[in-house]
Amino acid sequence: MAAINDKDAILEGLAEIVNEIAGIPAEEVELDKSFTDDLDVDSLSMVEVVVAAEERFEVKIPDDDVKGLRTVGDAADYILNAQLSTQS
Amino acid sequence: MTATITPALGARHARILGVGGYRPTRVVPNEEILKHIDSSDEWIRSRSGIVTRHWAGPDETVAEMAVIAGGKAIADAGVAPEDIDGVLVATVSHFKQTPAVATEIAHRVGAGRPAAFDVNAGCAGFTYALNLAKDMVTGGSARHVLVIGAERLSDLTDLEDRSTAFLFGDGAGAVVVGPSDKPAMGPVVWGSEGDKSDVISQTVSWEAYRNGGEGVRFPALRQEGQAVFRWAVFEMAKVAQRALDAAGITAADLDVFIPHQANMRIVDSMVKTLKLPEHVAIARDVETTGNTSAASIPLAMERLLATGQAKSGDLALCIGFGAGLTYAATVVTLP
């Protein structure tokens, strides 16, 4: 069974993913940052971020839900909720 | 007593004998696209890698482009036109469904009276037809099959859709498939995912267009960019790997990778996901040709060979994927 991460751990993981895919320094990836406006992650790179996050956090993020993930915090909340709902 | 049927006797193996391409005369830079959409050259390049594309003039019809590309492929193959006994044309942009455009093309390339028909499998159309040709040659229903991908996607482009106006181009590419002493075409890995038929589609059906009504415009191609990107990069990388496995080779054995030229970002991400070694030549024809659907793989193959980035005898992984959704991947020896 997959481990449930707390929000800090999810943020840390997302920061590593964004760094790997978009070359943004991990410390600039913060919860209130917008992927497109602040971090220069365009719509296609966002798909790569989402797929990497799915693998790392063992959750599913369908295409229809990706558009709702505007900020890093939105993504962290989504992943946290998805992890909790699969455990319950 | 019942008589015994004589079975067809096919060639032991099949190979691509020659390749040819045709790109329309008119080169369209991003600046021209920007007259219609609120965007920028930088944005188009960063999202697609496309700098220019060719758009066909009135005389550069699907049939005309296909005849030229087909004639070049026949000459490159070193066979006589009359030796062609099968003609398959993959297209989604020939606007006259009956008769199949393949029959006119077969006649005009001098092939006489071969079996001829069109194939519609979206951007996977060429790789579908290529594998049909292989099965015809090895199955004994034809000896030399001309396989053409020909498109005028500029006719199906919504110039006001800022997510697709810059993507599409026109052109035709062709190969001749014939008998071979040695294996030169691996098994095909193909399929369809009809549950995702709305991910890439025509905006309105011809019937709806005929009936008219409020806001009904001429049909164009539309797609859900993020869904297509995810499917193309991550699902198609698995299909590409299965085609390598089926051919009994690894990425290290590969010389060339020719994915459907949908978008440079998809090409780059597929290369990364597949972990292709540095020595593999990658088709990046989309930069100056745009996405030409069924024509993209033979056009890219022709250019790789013409520019010396690939050579005869190289092992190339070809993968087509597109509307349907459909896909087909196979490893071939380049002509």
From TrEMBL, chain A:
Boundaries of each EAL domain copy?
1-88
Q: A Gene Ontology CC term for this entry? A: membrane
Q: Where in the cell is it found?
A: Cytoplasm
- Please list every transmembrane segment annotated in the UniProt record, as residue ranges: none
What GO molecular function annotations does the UniProt record carry, in alphabetical order? acyl binding; acyl carrier activity
Which ranges carry the Carrier domain?
Answer: 8-83
As for what it does, the entry says:
Carrier of the growing fatty acid chain in fatty acid biosynthesis.
| HAMAP family registered for this protein in UniProt | Acyl_carrier (MF_01217)
Name of the featured protein: Acyl carrier protein
Instruction: Give the organism, scientific name.
Output: Wenjunlia vitaminophila (Streptomyces vitaminophilus)
State which gene encodes it: acpP
UniProtKB/TrEMBL annotation, chain B:
Q: Where in the cell is it found?
A: Cytoplasm
UniProt-listed GO biological process terms:
fatty acid biosynthetic process
Q: Where in the numbering of this chain does the Beta-ketoacyl-[acyl-carrier-protein] synthase III C-terminal domain appear?
A: 244-333
Domain called Beta-ketoacyl-[acyl-carrier-protein] synthase III N-terminal: residue spans: 117-194
Which reactions fall under this protein's catalytic activity? malonyl-[ACP] + acetyl-CoA + H(+) = 3-oxobutanoyl-[ACP] + CO2 + CoA
Q: Which InterPro entries match?
A: ACP_syn_III_C, ACP_syn_III_N, FabH, Thiolase-like
Q: Per UniProt, what is one Pfam family of this protein?
A: ACP_syn_III_C
Ranges that cross the membrane? none
Named in its record, the pathway it takes part in is: Lipid metabolism; fatty acid biosynthesis
Keywords from the UniProt entry: Acyltransferase, Cytoplasm, Fatty acid biosynthesis, Fatty acid metabolism, Lipid biosynthesis, Lipid metabolism, Multifunctional enzyme, Transferase
Q: Which GO terms describe its cellular component?
A: cytoplasm
Q: Could you cite one Gene Ontology molecular function of this protein?
A: beta-ketoacyl-acyl-carrier-protein synthase III activity
Where does the record place the catalytic residues?
123, 260, 291
Which parts of the sequence are annotated with region: ACP-binding? 261-265
Q: Where would you say this protein principally sits, based on its record?
A: cytoplasm
Q: Which enzyme class, named as a word?
A: transferase
Biological function: Catalyzes the condensation reaction of fatty acid synthesis by the addition to an acyl acceptor of two carbons from malonyl-ACP. Catalyzes the first condensation reaction which initiates fatty acid synthesis and may therefore play a role in governing the total rate of fatty acid production. Possesses both acetoacetyl-ACP synthase and acetyl transacylase activities. Its substrate specificity determines the biosynthesis of branched-chain and/or straight-chain of fatty acids.
UniProt free text on domains:
The last Arg residue of the ACP-binding site is essential for the weak association between ACP/AcpP and FabH.
Subunit-level organization = Homodimer.
Family of this protein: Belongs to the thiolase-like superfamily. FabH family.
The record's listing under NCBIfam families reads: fabH, PRK09352.1
Q: Which HAMAP family match?
A: FabH
**Name of this protein:** Beta-ketoacyl-[acyl-carrier-protein] synthase III
